Each structure stands twice: as C-alpha cells, then as structure tokens.
Amino acid sequence: MRKLLHFLLHFLLGAEPRLQRLTAYWIAAGLCYLLSMVLLNAQVRIGTASAEGAFVLTWFAAIGVLVFFILVRGSTALGIPPWQLAVSQAMFAILCDIGAYAVMGPVRGASLTVLLVIIVFCTFSLRPRATLALSAFAVATLGLTMAWMVAHDPQRYPAKVELVHFAIASCSLLAVAILIGEMSKMRSNMKRQREELMAALGKIQILATVDELTSLANRRYMNEVLSAEERRGHRPGEKMCIALLDIDFFKSVNDHFGHAGGDTVLRNFAAAARTQLRAADVLARWGGEEFLLLLPDTGLDEAEAVLARMADAVKAIRIPEFDLQRTITFSAGLVERKGGEPFADTISRADRAMYKAKAAGRNKVVRA
Fold this sequence. Notes:
Elements: H1 2-13, H2 17-46, H3 51-73, H4 75-78, H5 82-103, H6 112-121, H7 128-152, H8 159-209, H9 219-232, E1 240-247, H10 250-274, E2 282-287, E3 290-296, H11 300-315, E4 330-336, H12 343-359, E5 365-367
Parallel strand pairs: 4-5
Antiparallel strand pairs: 1-3, 1-4, 2-3
Helix pairs in contact: 2-3, 3-5, 5-6, 5-7, 6-8, 7-8, 10-11
C-alpha cells in the first residue's frame, strides 16, 4: 500500500522538488476550480444561474485544469519557463471567473472579488509589468463581456448595474495592481539589502578570522581553534605539536626599508610557509613577526620535518624591489602538548624554546 501511494505521488508530482511544488500548487488550484463549479451548479438547481452556461463553463474549466496539469507536469521536458505558465494560468483563471460572472445571474457581483484574488496571487511569480498587463486584460475582457450581456439581455442585465459593476471592478483591479507594484519594489529592495547584508557579514567574518596583511588565520581565530581542541579533550595516544616562529632580524628590515618593506616580507613569508602546510595544519599570525603553528596528529619528528620544509621555502624568497642582503629565515620553538595540558602552558613552553633558538644564533628549530 505504501509503495502504491509512493508511486502515485511520484507519478502526479514528479521527482524534482521544484516541479513537485509547482504541480502541488496546481492540484490545489484544481480543487478550487472543482469547488467553484460545485457552487455554480448548486445555483443552477435553485434557478439563479444559467444551466446551459454552467454546463459549458464546467467543461471548459475541467479541460483547462487537465491541460494545465499536463503542461505543469511536463514543463521541464517541454522547456516552458515558470513565468509563462504563471501568465497562462492567470489568464485562464480570469476567463473562468468572468465566464462565471456571465452565467451566475443576480449574485454575479460576488464573482468579481475572485478577480482580485487572482491578481494578488500573481504577486509571487510575476513582475509588476506582467501583473499590470493581466489587470488590463481582466478589465478589457470584463468590459466586453458586460457589453455583450447588456446587448443580448438588457432586462436581466441592466446597463446601469453593469456599469457600476465595471467601475468598481476596474478601480479595484487598478488599485491592486498599483499596490502589487509597490510591494514588488519593496521586495526587490529588501532582497538587495539582504544580499548586501550577507556580503557585509561575510566580509566581517573574514576580517574577524583572517589577518588582513598575510591572509593567514589571526590570533583570535587561532584562540578559538585551541579552545575547541581543549573542549574536545585529549584522547589516549593522540599527539599534537605547537611551534612558535619568529622572523629573524625583522627589526632591521623595518629600519632599512620602512614598514612597507616589513609588510612585504611578512606577506612573502606567509605565502611561502603556507605552501608547506598539510591539510589539517593551522598557521596564524600571532603578533608582529611571530607566527603560531598548530600541527594536529603529529609527533615531534614529523613536526620538525614540516618546519624544515617551511624553512627551505622561506629561504628561497626573493624580493626584487628590496636588497635584503640576506635570506629570510626564522627561529622556532617546537613542543609537543602533554596530555590534556592547557594550550597556554604549551605555548609558553614553545615561546621559551623559541628564545633559546634565537639565543643560539637564530635560523634554528629548538625542541623543548
């Protein structure tokens, strides 16, 4: 039973989510048409509506609902854009409603409110110009229908009454079309503002986590990563290393070439170091010319090999606009985290090891 129900739903609605949504909407619209035809034929029974007109309109609506179901269901295969379907469905609904107005007799004025509902529904799928064109189509079709009714049966459809109905319907449709246009502008503005806000939020998020000069992670983001690691807790047998790096003789670079020269060295250092990182490694600018390197699932020997590759890449840096008179090197302190040791203590040990490397002549990696 469940398989049969699933098959029927798949057959009726299709497999694509967008197509399922459009088909479901049209099935709901078809139920509205069915209810309307039931009410119309109920009026035929009590003698307030034309039996012949109701018969023709019922078949027209039934065939139209079936045809549009096929078009909606096969719109993807037929290459019919959604806006064309929406316009065609709205025009069909307008014709059905005005047809109902022509055959309903004394209570026909009630059907004019449905025209407003049809136009309002177009707000969600059509642009303001298309909605305004549909409103004009509805007014023109209604006017021609009323003129035909007055000409063929002036006693049942007095010209003064039809003129009042036409004036009310026309003014209402025009007002609704104008309101829809304004709502569409507001929706477009809100969409644009939302996109601008999302872009701004994305930029703020980048600025909050990325060092603007080097494009590496900044200290704030690295602290978040370390805090997350501490919350996760230490697992038995897990190895993790921390390295604190400091560019050698960086002050002399600033003294000779100014801060612009120092910034150039920092950018080149970051770009070269990044090429040697593994997928899980995180390198962050810790402050000034200091950088913190997190090496997850890594022992001291493997971590030292990563730093050696980074040192070779950094030494290969050449900056044509600056005669640095020496290769760029760094001193590093490398430590392995002890069990669930707080990262503040691990970094402190790495910092002491880094100063030992600098005291030993720089361009070295000292293991704590």
